[in-house]
Amino acid sequence: MIFWLIAEIIKILIVFAGLLMAAAYLTLLERKVAAKIQNRMGPMEAGFHGLLQPIADGIKLFFKEDIIPADADGILFILAPIIAVIPALTTFAVIPFGAPVKILGHTVPLQITDVNIGILFILALSSLGIYGVVLGGWASNSKYSLLGGIRTAAQMISYEIPLVLSIIGVIMIAGDLSLSKIVSEQSHIWFIVYQPVGFMIYLIASTAEMNRVPFDLGEAEGELVAGFHTEYSSMKFAFYFIGEYAQIVVNSAVIVTLFLGGWQGPLLPSVLWFLIKVFFVVLIYLWLRWTYPRLRYDELMDFGWKFLLPLALANIIVTGFIMILINK
Amino acid sequence: MEALFYVFSIIAVFSALMVISMKNPLTSALYLVLCFFALAGFYVLLDMQFLAAMQILVYAGAIMVLVVLIIMLLNLSKIKKIKMDLHQVFIAMVIFIILLVEITIYILNGSLKKPTGIYTHALINKIGNTQILGEFLFTKYIFPFEVASVFLLVAIIGAYLFAKKKY
Predict the structure, then answer these.
(1) Per the CB < 8 Å rule, is B53 touching A153?
(2) What ipTM does this complex have?
(3) Which is the most buried residue in A283, A304, B13, B80, by most CB within 10 A?
(4) SS3 (DSSP) at A169
(5) Shortest alpha-carbon distance between residue A118 and chain B (Å)
(6) For A135, nearest residue in chain B (alpha carbons)
(7) pLDDT digits 0-9 by tens, A199-245
(8) A-chain residues within 8 Å CB-CB of B152?
(9) Phi, psi for B39 (deg, rounded to 5)
């Protein structure tokens, strides 16, 4: 019992620290990838090839003046960035990041907790991320923030439906909602082979859920200054950033778990395989951002409702038919 | 477990009271979200993780977001005066009395019941309650399930017609 408790606390600390570090260094990675794509060098001054840049950024944000607008709703204004961060950090609790290891005769699964509805837990939490954005936009009491918040809310609701539906194919094949079972089902073949359409829909819809280019209508710089976080400064602004980048890591980890075989792989240790795969999916997200221009708002809605949603539904029906045909 | 039950109960009752006593409709809506979380906690305590996740995914994550969105769009802060409507008071009283009677009857008649039929707690934990729920929805309760989906379809078509109409 005590061993279990200690192991659990250590796992939580490792995941928490790892996620925050990853979120911080993802800002550097993003700037480096952007620089490579635009044929620049990126940050070079702080540390070797800018390796200390995230720490410098963090210190800078920490010492900035913390401004709360006079007309803002005080409590909600402070609460909103916190609400934006919590779902992103909590989601990782159900993701298995390695094969079970044996320590002192006990088998410790490398997953904080194995809920039997793991996928639904992730979906439920990711649907809450919207509150941080909407409340931040509303509480700032500024027209740009409000417009950004409303736009983002409408967009996130629209893309949540294809996001949820795209996973159902995986659930049907695996026959289980628990993430550790889904990973062990993929020991022979990754689910991306069975579910290429589901994978693409999840990738696109999750990009829209995170408000990243080409779906960053909520913070379109050209029209809305900075969207929902226009009025934010200092660490509150940083919280939005941490939430956004932690969400990228978490979504990549979900993709790896559902479609790319989780931590399974030959030769190398399982945790390393997990990290490698997550890194590559993160690179896909960054690549998307620096390749495509932003969609117009009506294009965005059309794409979500008239293309992704029917495609996700068709994917479920086709998957069901094939499963009946081959008697699985 | 019992302590958790009381914690969730206090949160649920407190947030439900705040929903109806807050002046600002947005704050009320947010307290309602908190109330849904407490209810999800009850479901987890009852070993119904599926319902708990659905509670958060559907109610807190989708329906309440729409409510919050509408409140933000309406700009209610300009409406200062709250009108008292006698019809509303009357309807509310009737519903309140019906609910009160219903709850009293349930509390008086209900005692600790164990799950009946072939599904014991051990079996449910072995198969997983999501699978059992799905099985029941598609066999024993297929008719209510289909009726509910037809209603939803009607609602979707109705919403579409309202949205399409040009005023």
Answers:
(1) no
(2) 0.78
(3) A304
(4) helix
(5) 9
(6) B68
(7) 999 998 888 888 777 777 767 666 777 777 777 877 888 888 888 88
(8) none
(9) -65, -40
